[in-house]
Specification:
By secondary structure, the protein is mainly α. The protein contains five helices and no strands. It starts with a helix and ends in a 12-residue tail after the last helix.
C-alpha cells in the first residue's frame, strides 16, 4: 500500500512540474500546485513512520487498551482523506478538521498516560516504540492540518473560523 501511495504521489508531482513549466505568466490568483504533492508526500512518510513504529507487538494488555482509540482514529483519518479527495475533485468545501483532531488527540493522550503508568514495566524498546508512535501521531496531525489548507486553496474555500478559548 505504501508503495502504491508513493507511486501516486510521484505521478502527481510530475503533473505539477509539467503544469509549472507550461503555465503562462498570469495575474490570476490560481493556487500554487506545488504544496499539495509535498504535503501528500509528508503524509505518506507519516504513515510509513507509523507502520515502522508499530511493527513490534506491545504486551497484550497495552495493545487491547490502545486498540479502540487507534481503530477509531484510523477510521476518522480514512474518512477525512476520502472527503479531501472528493473536495478536490468536485471543488467542494473541505471536511472539518475537528473530529479528526479529537480522535488523534485521544490517541496521543492515551499513549502519554500509558507511557507514564507503565514506564517501569516496559522494556526500553517498548518505551521507544510508544515514543515513536506518539511522534508519528503528532507529525500526522500537523501534516493533516496542512492538507486541509491545501484543499482549501485548491477549492477556493475560505479559511475555517477558529474560536479562541474563552469567547
Amino acid at each position: 500500500m505504501q508503495d502504491r501511495i508513493g507511486r501516486s504521489v510521484a505521478t502527481l508531482q510530475e503533473l505539477v512540474e509539467e503544469i509549472e513549466h507550461e503555465r503562462p505568466v498570469t495575474f490570476t490568483s490560481a493556487p500554487d500546485p506545488a504544496p499539495l504533492p509535498r504535503t501528500l508526500l509528508r503524509l505518506r512518510h507519516d504513515i510509513v513512520m507509523m507502520g515502522r513504529a508499530s511493527a513490534e507487538t506491545l504486551p497484550v494488555h497495552l495493545s487491547e487498551h490502545l486498540k479502540p482509540s487507534f481503530d477509531r482514529a484510523g477510521e476518522v483519518v480514512s474518512n477525512y482523506f476520502r472527503a479531501c479527495a472528493l473536495a478536490l475533485t468536485a471543488r467542494y468545501i473541505p471536511p472539518p478538521l475537528e473530529p479528526l483532531q479529537a480522535a488523534l488527540d485521544a490517541c496521543s493522550s492515551q499513549l502519554g498516560a500509558l507511557r507514564q503508568r507503565e514506564l517501569t514495566h516496559l522494556s526500553a524498546t517498548q518505551v521507544e516504540q510508544l515514543f515513536a508512535v506518539r511522534f508519528a501521531l503528532d507529525q500526522l496531525q500537523r501534516n493533516i492540518a496542512d492538507l486541509g489548507r491545501c484543499v482549501r486553496e485548491w477549492t477556493g474555500s475560505p479559511r475555517p473560523v477558529v474560536d479562541k478559548p474563552g469567547k
